[in-house]
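Technical annex, item 7. During the second reporting period the consortium partners agreed on a shared format for inverse folding records so that results from different sites could be compared directly. Each record opens with the tokenized structure and is followed by the designed sequence. A conforming record, contributed by the partner at site C, is shown below for reference.
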């Protein structure tokens, strides 16, 4: 009978579709016997294939693979191959509660925001840091010149102060300042105090007058009461050019010719005089206005003058019959007058709150190209853009307080800003795309604005009364401001960008920032 036993053993070993009687149990049978998978089946299989009996019979049964519709081999169950082998992920070791399907539950301790914030704030425990790591941090801090126990990146503290005696400006490792975009950030430092302060006694506190101008020969002219004084910024010499003969008369406007030593002087008597500063001699006196002349502007050999009567005269200084044009549009004092750099347009502002734009056609009763009524107060502050001759900046008085940018070709208001105070004067910078404005109550400051969006760069404070007039130095780096506190302050607010190629100054003209050191009558 022994040979029958041997034959049965061989038959069992070679029977592929029967259950194994010896050897270690399969993994899925271990789970079934341990109670992790009720019914002895994978929970995925038992849940997805309802109707199957908990225990598989020894005979082969065909089971369809979920999602495929294909029948698996009937030998898989017989050989102990897990039904989800190759088709499902291995179930989690977490016990299944309530017969629900297994799912992955992450360890939420590692994503605890409170714990993470605590770790960033408090850092590592010094006792648990290896000596080699401590030494590495120490050497790294010394190489980068970072004080000990200081973080390179911090969300709560400002950048560490440099060590005492340390002159390296690269000490700041990080910055909280928002990114300003390409070309917006600037390393330029604008001094908040003036370079020089000059006394200007008897400077009239009259909003409608223009009493200050700076020539191309570096001569600063200022009208003080009934006299005109010239300050040579190159030598520091101050001379009295002229004075009015009759008591009660005063100088109401001064304006240098674009190139040369000729200055136009407007008086309270309605006269326009021409003086040659080089020889200190009056070369001409032109009449025609019936009221004081408060504004002057040159266009080559044409001198335009605006009077309190609202009339603008064009005078050709080369001919005997000087009046070549009369403009009648304003109804009140013409306090602002400015020709464009290319000589094509003339801007005039009046106490009637109107800004007029004229062409360069001479004659009588010429109608303005544009008559702009956006300002709600007198328009005195006028200045043309030096690199875009069709762009004009204007400022309104106390009831308006706005600075506006105009395109005179279309008549559109490109941008505007509420300056919060009376706008008395405006100048464009040729070095930067910026404007500077002089203001009255309440801060009596000068403000620098970015073009074209008119965002404020900084305020320059120091005057004790309203800033009446502004003048730009011939090298376009400094601004002189005359105020009702009877002082003239020189501001180094547009210093040349050293990264750009320097442009040599004209022969005979010294750099203003150097010659001002020799100025006399300085307070």
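Designed sequence (site C submission):
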């Amino acid at each position: 009978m022994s040979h029958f036993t041997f034959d049965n053993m061989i038959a069992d070993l070679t029977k592929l579709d029967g259950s194994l009687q010896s050897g270690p149990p399969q993994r899925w049978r271990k789970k079934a016997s341990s109670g992790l998978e009720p019914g002895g089946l994978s929970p995925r299989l038992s849940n997805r294939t309802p109707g199957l009996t908990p225990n598989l019979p020894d005979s082969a049964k065909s089971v369809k693979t979920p999602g495929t519709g294909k029948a698996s081999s009937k030998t898989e169950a017989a050989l102990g191959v897990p039904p989800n082998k190759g088709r499902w992920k291995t179930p989690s070791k977490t016990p299944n509660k309530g017969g629900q399907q297994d799912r992955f539950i992450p360890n939420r301790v590692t994503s605890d925001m409170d714990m993470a914030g605590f770790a960033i704030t408090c850092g590592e425990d010094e006792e648990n840091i290896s000596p080699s790591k401590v030494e590495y941090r120490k050497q790294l801090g010394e190489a980068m010149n970072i004080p000990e126990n200081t973080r390179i990146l911090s969300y709560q503290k400002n950048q560490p102060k440099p060590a005492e005696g340390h002159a390296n400006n690269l000490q700041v490792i990080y910055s909280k300042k928002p990114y300003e975009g390409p070309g917006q950030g600037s390393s330029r430092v604008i001094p908040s105090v003036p370079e020089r302060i000059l006394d200007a006694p008897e400077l009239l506190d009259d909003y409608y007058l223009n009493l200050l101008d700076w020539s191309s020969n570096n001569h600063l002219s200022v009208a003080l009461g009934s006299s005109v004084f010239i300050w040579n910024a190159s030598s520091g010499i101050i001379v009295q050019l002229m004075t009015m003969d009759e008591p009660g008369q005063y100088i109401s406007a001064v304006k240098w010719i674009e190139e040369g030593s000729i200055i136009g002087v407007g008086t309270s008597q309605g006269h326009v005089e021409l003086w040659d500063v080089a020889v200190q001699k009056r070369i001409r006196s032109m009449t025609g206005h019936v009221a004081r002349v408060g504004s002057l502007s040159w266009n080559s050999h044409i001198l335009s003058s605006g009077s309190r009567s609202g009339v603008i005269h064009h005078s050709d200084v080369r001919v005997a019959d000087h009046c070549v044009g009369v403009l009648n549009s304003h109804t009140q004092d013409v306090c602002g007058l400015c020709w464009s750099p290319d000589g094509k347009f003339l801007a005039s502002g009046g106490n009637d709150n109107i800004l007029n734009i004229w062409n360069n056609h001479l004659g009588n009763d010429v109608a303005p190209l544009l008559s702009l009524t956006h300002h709600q107060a007198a328009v005195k502050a006028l200045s043309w853009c030096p690199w875009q001759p069709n762009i004009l900046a204007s400022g309104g008085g106390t009831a308006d307080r706005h600075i506006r940018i105009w395109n005179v070709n279309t008549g559109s208001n490109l941008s505007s800003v509420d300056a919060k105070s009376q706008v008395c004067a405006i100048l464009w910078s040729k070095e930067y795309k910026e404007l500077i404005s002089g203001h009255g109550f309440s801060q009596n400051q000068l403000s620098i604005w970015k073009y074209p969006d008119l965002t404020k760069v900084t305020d320059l404070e120091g005057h004790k009364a309203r800033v009446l007039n502004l003048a730009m130095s011939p090298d376009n780096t400094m601004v002189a401001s005359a105020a009702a506190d009877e002082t003239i302050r020189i501001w180094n607010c547009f210093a040349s960008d050293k990264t750009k190629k320097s442009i040599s100054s004209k022969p005979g003209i010294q750099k203003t920032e150097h010659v001002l050191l020799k100025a006399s009558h300085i307070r």
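Confidence is low (pLDDT under 50) at residues 38-79, 171-185, 501-523. The longest strand covers residues 293-299. All partners now use this format for quarterly exchanges.
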